[in-house]
Amino acid sequence: MDKPAIPNSFRTGPDEQGMFGIFGGRFVAETLMPLILDLERHWNEVKDDPDFKAELTDLSTHYAGRPSKLYFAEGLTRHLREVSSAKGLGGGAKVYFKREDLNHTGSHKINNCLGQILLAKRMGKKRIIAETGAGQHGVASATVAARFGFPCVVYMGATDVARQSPNVFRMKLLGAEVRPVTAGHGTLKDAMNEALRDWVTNVEDTYYLIGTAAGPHPYPELVRDFQSVIGTEARAQILEQEGRLPDTIIACVGGGSNAIGLFHPFLDDKDVRIIGIEAGGRGLDGIEHCASMNAGAPGVLHGNRTYLLQDADGQIMDGHSISAGLDYPGVGPEHSWLRDTGRVEYVPILDDEALEAFKLTTRVEGIIPALESAHAIAHAVKIVPAMDKDQIVIVNLSGRGDKDVHTVANMLGMEI
Amino acid sequence: MTTRIDRRMAKLKAEGRPALVTYFMGGDPDYDTSLSIMKALPGAGSDIIELGMPFSDPMADGPAIQAAGLRALKGGQTLVKTLKMASEFRAGDNETPIVLMGYYNPIYIYGVDRFLRDALASGIDGLIVVDLPPEMDEELCIPALKAGINFIRLATPTTDDKRLPKVLQNTSGFVYYVSMTGITGSALADTGKVAAAVGRIKGHTDLPVCVGFGVKTAEQARVIGANADGVVVGTAIVNAVANVLGPKGEKTADPAEAVATLVSGLSQGVRAARLAAAE
């Protein structure tokens, strides 16, 4: 494929048709098209509305606990400097964590949910539907639905319901109805299909609260904008704490909402190296991974064109990742465009490498990271020892790992 | 340029009855059985055939068509084979229009230009691609029209008068009115409302208007057919196949015969539609 032209700014997309280069768009059934246009109209009204911004900022501050801290990970930095010395390199960059794990509900997902619930309220919608993989977005959706008094239905693959039972219970406590989806392989992709089927059936009163920066336009844009608070804060914080921009920023990419949230405010800082981490699963040789941008091809699914894991006939494949939050065969369209333009590098991290980073962070920092975030940390562990001591790396710690202790215990052959 | 669809619709209009449009899933449960179903359709009374292209993630379809698509994929169906099925059918029937129906990704991966060339060569007359609204016309609709293949658009209850012209703009062959907001196989909407919607669309276009989603019985076909130019039946046909498959997918009776029996009944419905309306 031809490499797209390098734009003057990487921060102006999407265009009026919702495209980032060839990616994005509005590939939906006609029934949904008027709803998506209506959403776009409301989104355009609120995105520069000071009252809307003020309400969101107030909730973000007092309800969700923003701004999240930018934390100098001294323990991990020290450890990686020892690794560097042992290799005779004598380097090791300073590692910072953007602490999205400290947000209410335990991950970055609340940023998007608060923004969208205010939008749903403005639109006069009466009912919230959402899809979830690991359950983080489901919990965040159920949380804001409870806070604003909306009935909420969360679609979740039956496989995920089984492997994320604590989150299922949390959603139920919050008053949401969790509908297990048995179609397909019972994971996030199937949950998203089912949420779309619900939306196409309940067009009058229902707001579809998509959890990642994917789906038909304007979702990739609006989710990105709600999540960009991560990068906007991080950029100001590092300037405040270090007096300069970081050399490298790293985030994990499933659908890619925490990553685009961190990346977007840095896209035009040409000297900042930006790396997105895909789930390499059990390796890219086989089919047990979710590295759509490293091992997939552009295609059309769930309302947008983007890199997808698919076979030669255009049938979508089920990926695999140790982390349910990265277990999705596609990725947000803006990431696909950033990949093709070369602005962002996307590299895979294997299940085992993520697990090692999970254990290391827990031990040297006293922080249990989400397995998703552990993928991003694992890449820092790889590259930091070869960097200089005066260099700076920011890793997005997108969520806390309490939800993952059962999975990790299983992997380690322990019972809890 | 007239197509088989245009000619068939004109003929039925002259006969004074609506078309029976039958959807089945290509490759369900296997290629040979599916081809035998396709070949049985015209004789049983089908006027236009919708040949379903299976897709792993059919977002607008209910459980019956989802399951049929998965059976077809499990049976090894691909877009190449679906086109082959059309051309094998076409070798014995040069009149019955064939409309391919499905989702965009398999076509996109096949390559739009190559797909249109091969579809034309296979005797395909029209396309219904669920996830390509008018906003995405440059993708496939306009190239298909240039190639001489009808692009049949879905209009839905959410398509209001303001939007309808946009939906109709590049539509040809016929307009497919989706009777309800929902997925295939749901319960039929209020037939009075459907009739009103058909009238509303006819106020905007001279194209025939066919109605689908929720039509399962001859009686429903008769009622819908009183106003519509065609009645589309899909889920009921797919279910007729599923009903003669055992728990392991083995055939307990001939699927082609089961489908033919159902379609014969439905065709009685459309043939009675205008008689009833005239009463």
Automatic annotation (TrEMBL), chain A:
Tell me if Nucleotide-binding is a UniProt keyword of this record.
Answer: no
The protein's enzyme class: lyase
Q: Which residues form the Tryptophan synthase beta chain-like PALP domain?
A: 87-398
Q: What is this protein called?
A: Tryptophan synthase beta chain
Q: Which domain of life is it from?
A: Bacteria
Return the similarity comment.
Belongs to the TrpB family.
Record EC number? 4.2.1.20
From TrEMBL, chain B:
Protein's UniProt keywords contain Membrane: no
What name has this protein been given in UniProt?
Tryptophan synthase alpha chain
Please name the pathway. Amino-acid biosynthesis; L-tryptophan biosynthesis; L-tryptophan from chorismate: step 5/5
* Name of the gene: trpA
Enzymatic class: lyase
Catalytic center residues: E50, D61
Family membership: Belongs to the TrpA family.
**E.C. designation(s):** 4.2.1.20
Pfam families from the xrefs?
A: Trp_syntA
- Coiled-coil region list: none
Keyword annotations of the record: Amino-acid biosynthesis, Aromatic amino acid biosynthesis, Lyase, Tryptophan biosynthesis
Tell me the subunit arrangement. Answer: Tetramer of two alpha and two beta chains.
Q: Name one GO cellular component term.
A: cytosol
Its UniProt entry gives the catalysed reaction(s) as:
(1S,2R)-1-C-(indol-3-yl)glycerol 3-phosphate + L-serine = D-glyceraldehyde 3-phosphate + L-tryptophan + H2O
This entry's Gene Ontology molecular function terms read: tryptophan synthase activity
What this chain does, per the record? The alpha subunit is responsible for the aldol cleavage of indoleglycerol phosphate to indole and glyceraldehyde 3-phosphate.
Q: Which domain of life is it from?
A: Bacteria
